[in-house]
Amino acid sequence: MASHSSSRKSALVLTHNYPRYSGDMSGVFLKHLLSTLDSVEFTVLAPHDRGLPESEDVDGIEIRRFRYAPDDKEVLAYRGEMHRHLTSRPLAVWNFIRSYRNAAMNLVRHSTFDLIWAHWWIPGGWIGRKAKAVADIPLVVTCHGTDIFLLSKYRWLRGQAASVFSAANRVTVVSTFLREQLVGAMKDKVEGIGEKTVVAPMPVDTGVFYHDEGIEPEPGSIVCASRLTKQKNIDRLILAASRLKEDNVQFRVDIFGDGPERQHLEKMIDDLSLSDQVRIHRPVPQGELANKYRKSQIAVLVSEREGFGLALLEAMLCGCAGVGARSGGIIDVLAKDGVDGVLVEPGDVDSLYQSLKDLLTNQARLAELREACRESAVSRFSNETISHIFREILEQL
Prior knowledge:
CATH superfamily of the largest domain: Glycogen Phosphorylase B
Oligomer: single chain
Order of helices and strands: EHEEEHHEHEHHEHHEEHEHEHEHEHEHHH
């Protein structure tokens, strides 16, 4: 079992999403966050997946993986849709949670930790509440978005959520929007939920996402990295692109992502005769995506009720001008409309089209905005700034 003999404090991290191998995008932001907090010794408990070792050390972080089914049936984690199985496969979800709980209990009974840090209130926070009762140590619960939206979609979950947030010594969320959503849902169920909940975004790996003055972006280049779901409003971007084409504006849109809307969106592109201007690409590794950002002038994210808008922030760090929906956590990223980015009305094709046209036809203004976006992103979301927030939270507990 894990032993922590160094003078550093030790923390058990509970998550259902963590990189499985080099280059894996699953929970990569969490791995990067932990790497910035070198004053704490972390043990990560995450689900097993086919072909993975049950225990290994990766970059100084101990990884423990719990099995919840035979290899060929371990299909709940790392697929991006776990919450959908709550109603479609409740027995499989219960087996997953039971295995998760047993693994966490085994760790806290046989190892010494100073703190439990659960990511996503469900299932991690629920497991963390149980483990805290056994180990009698502080519990931090970090919410990333989907887990908070579940409280609106499945109101019957609020009782379980209340027990988790009541047990937590501190709760962090990645945007002001999510804090409002969480406090609104729990204010009558959890005493002091407002006081214990703080906004702490995930840090961006600035060793990957950075501006390179030696790279000149392609004129008219627009990039969008997003899950291809209805909530992301990619169809609005395609419709805006169709209007840009009608106006003979020079542009190109590259969309990186996958999801249930892919086939519908590709048909839209064909029906609007946009195949020369708009292309959908499969997701690519972070380094490759960062290079695409550096070669682009504008990054677009127009999803509604976005938890934070990490993809937009990453693009801005690489030198893109940010254009986003006036919705959700995107407002935290583009804090000053017209100064460090452009906000458009959610779902409004005309607003998006006009904003893109204004930038693409005014290269001086676009260059100015690109620089302002980059400076704003660096000053407000650097590794140093974000890691300081989390370091203070952990040290206080």
